[in-house]
Design a protein that fits this description.
Largest interface: A-B, 62 and 62 residues
Strand order of the largest sheet of chain A: 1-3-2
CATH topology of chain A: Arc Repressor Mutant, subunit A
CATH class of chain A: Mainly Alpha
CATH architecture of chain A: Orthogonal Bundle
Strand content of chain A: 5-15%
CATH superfamily of chain A: Winged helix-like DNA-binding domain superfamily/Winged helix DNA-binding domain
Shape of chain A: globular
Structural class of chain A: mainly alpha
Oligomer: homodimer
Number of domains of chain A: 1
Chain lengths: 123, 123
Amino acid sequence: MRLPVRRAAEVCPVEVAVSILGGTWKLTLVKHLTAGPLRFGQLGRRVPAANRKTLTRALRELEEDGVVHRDVHAEVPPRVEYSLTALGGTLAPIVEAMDSWGADYAARLAADPLQGRGSSRSA
Amino acid sequence: MRLPVRRAAEVCPVEVAVSILGGTWKLTLVKHLTAGPLRFGQLGRRVPAANRKTLTRALRELEEDGVVHRDVHAEVPPRVEYSLTALGGTLAPIVEAMDSWGADYAARLAADPLQGRGSSRSA
DNA sequence: CAGCATCCTTTATGATACTG
DNA sequence: CAGTATCATAAAGGATGCTG
């Protein structure tokens, strides 16, 4: 459903960013990683609504897109640390802008529960 | 597939923004409307890759979410103008941030065509 | 012109259970 | 612990044709 990055690039630069970051949980994951590297389980506890498979897929795609680095430690039990790449670090302004906009939007919803469609899209 | 806004709000503010703006074409439409109101056909010509139905749906959802205003003129032939609401106008920083990030990303791709997955997601 | 109706395909996301 | 495998489902996005 999401545009391939190269095709998005032919349309509009914003669409490139959307195709890489638009997936559910992806920007939330990036946001949490902004504070520093986290293990798979730690990320999972920070985003309980996402199951392991979904989480794995999102992280793999972010990795393929060069946003996230995956560090597998050869230990038992396994330890896998995720961190932002240099490119991923450049997402900070986007994360901040969307975080504050989303917070404002949520505040409006709370103030006027009748506004917006709110439940027209499932999970 | 996309989270309902209210559920997203329980997870993370960034997820609220993603649920509203994450759909294909949506941020591109907002970007074009930043320059001023546009008619349906004008928007379509600016985003030729999206067909009428997809365009209509995206605009309706943006309208329901309070980002876009739809102005139907009682004329023949019909004239429908889309514009940003006040709330939609507050998206400018996000649009700018994602536009420049996407442009940088596309430039990297062009410089090193082997990087990224680029075609792992269809349209 | 700006849509809507219909039908279709893809795939994102999830539930659940198993494994090195 | 950090996954993978399998199966299921809804919904996003699209093609095409009709209409006030």
